[in-house]
Amino acid sequence: xxxxxxxxxxxxxxxxxxxxxxxxxxxxxxxxxxxxxxxxxxxxxxxxxxxxxxxxxxxxxxxxxxxxxxxxxxxxxxxxxxxxxxxxxxxxxxxxxxxxxxxxxxxxxxxxxxxxxxxxxxxxxxxxxxxxxxxxxxxxxxxxxxxxxxxxxxxxxxxxxxxxxxxxxxxxxxxxxxxxxxxxxxxxxxxxxxxxxxxxxxxxxxxxxxxxxxxxxxxxxxxxxxxxxxxxxxxxxxxxxxxxxxxxxxxxxxxxxxxxxxxxxxxxxxxxxxxxxxxxxxxxxxxxxxxxxxxxxxxxxxxx
Length: 304
Known about the structure:
This protein is mainly alpha-helical. Helix content is 82%, strand content 0%. It has one domain (2-303). It has helices at residues 2-29, 36-57, 61-69, 71-96, 100-121, 128-148, 153-169, 176-200, 211-218, 220-235, 240-246, 249-261, 268-303. The radius of gyration is 20 Å and the shape is globular.
């Protein structure tokens, strides 16, 4: 009973994290009058200020000092900083330029792209259904490109940047909280410098566009760090396969928000591309569920 209760609690906590991430386009849309790059700079600063007391309360300064004093770890986190900053910027821009459907497609593609990265860089062997899923995803991207006559750069940029972020972050010997803290710390100098530069020009949204915009910019820390903390807390109580299945909440929310809240038009080309991607994800998910069940049975037999 205790295990079932912990699993249910973990499920609800992780689902809450993904729902916050999934609903984030509505939040970023309220800042549409602020340039995406300026929003990114505020997101960095307020996230750093939000994470500082958390690192202090959790007494993670030792881990932080170990990370920043090790050149290899620092270089790894510098790379992840570039990937996550690129991902954040493109996503905010896509929301505020009515491209949420492409963002949704990008995050549907991401798990499959991560599998591809694992195969190429970590020498992970793919099962037949996983290979089929990757081919279907590639077919979906090719179909969308040919039908629209333009490269779906938003979707692929989001998938690639977040995929490489996950890959490189995997080898960093730091916890998610400390890792994000270091990443925002590395971005602090350019973020503060850019906002000071804007202020010197008599520009910039903060203080100039009203208290509502100021509070929304400050709250960007919650949209960034709060779901991460919930995710960390919940995943400790769940199987990896369950977490993998739950991650589709995010792009599903993006898709629903794009269509029913922002009223973006879904073209036949996009429907076709999504059909390929959803079929690929269905195969990938089914294969993962069967694989993890087999592993569980093997583990039970070994224990007995």
